[in-house]
């Protein structure tokens, strides 16, 4: 190896280890391989793209470089004339091949080119291994934080329906899925979607039933996870909504020997399949969420028992009070009748009796009102729903977006407009979570907005400080602002 080529090699070796993001690391490897050898075409062909969530070969992107050469199966035989292929190993496992073609003036690759690539490939294996460890640690941290957030939310006293929606929403966000749905048993022996969280209107997803006899039903009712490569074409999937989705996970919500239901996380058609790490982490999330649901149900049961006990006490107090007052009033009237008191005295006694009866009626009304009050429920309305979305996004972002409300939000925004606003908010938060370097997100809901046509409206504004990278930023390249308006 000539001395003139050592400095570029050292620079290339250092460059491939400067980033812990796997996709960026692979891109560095391809670019540096092409620069070292002068190849016009470069690609990294992986053995198992699905393992690391890779959906395409990564070509070099330097100016003047032509598209990547077609990949031969990694680990295949000797390269053909005019091409160069060098394997990359991560520990003792074959990760893939660096595949180069197109030397200037159709010159052949030299033994020195191949030697340089072998050195680069060795360093690339280390960098890929480190990137894998870092990505696995980040994923595990996000899922653990999400599971903890779900447990906290469920134990704050949500209703059963809200609790299931909380699990579905958080799981959808963490898995980067198109939908998060929960299925439960039907009386007929099948399973039915009872809760659905999607970026858009769930439409006819809720109520979809897996009929008895479906091939996948035996596994689901048995508490076994089911992994689907493509929901639209898998013969085990029989629902009428399957054509909308691609890769999917169906995970049991089971705790203490009790099957609560199934958590399904389908991605869109054409999206990358779930990796083994994602499947493992999602399964652990489902187990913890099921335990939290059981604990929340037990807590709700204790709260109901406390309410019933309090109502028993109220009933006993009511019985004692009413009986005592009615008995005393009756004795008072009977004594008046026996004594034959004067007119003024009788009038005073009757007035006192009427007052006692009025007081008794008031006590009865107060007791009945207390008995009719339901147990305390979680906050509702637009404010509560927006705050819940912000809390859900915090599990992925690592920080909680700030929120601000202007005007009479809960009283002026109708349910229909609120549903549309929440859909747009989910989209904006999901897009922000995928942008690099986001450290702050601001959510603003304003019902004092005047629309262009003069009508009063509500405006949703979501701002972040990440790198847009697509020219959509309003501040010259840093940060993105998403605005949505609707009439009230």
UniProtKB/TrEMBL annotation:
Pfam families with a match to the protein in the record: GAF (PF01590), GAF_2 (PF13185), HisKA_3 (PF07730)
Q: Which UniProt keywords apply?
A: Kinase, Transferase, Two-component regulatory system
Gene3D superfamilies per UniProt: 1.20.5.1930, 3.30.450.40
Which residue windows does the record flag with biased composition (Pro residues)? 66-76
Annotated region (Disordered) at 58-82, 463-488
Entry-linked SMART domains: GAF (SM00065)
Which segments constitute the GAF domain? 21-138, 159-303
Highest taxon, organism lineage: Bacteria
Q: Does the keyword Kinase apply?
A: yes
Q: What is this protein's name?
A: GAF domain-containing protein
Q: Could you tell me which species this protein originates from?
A: Streptomyces spinosisporus
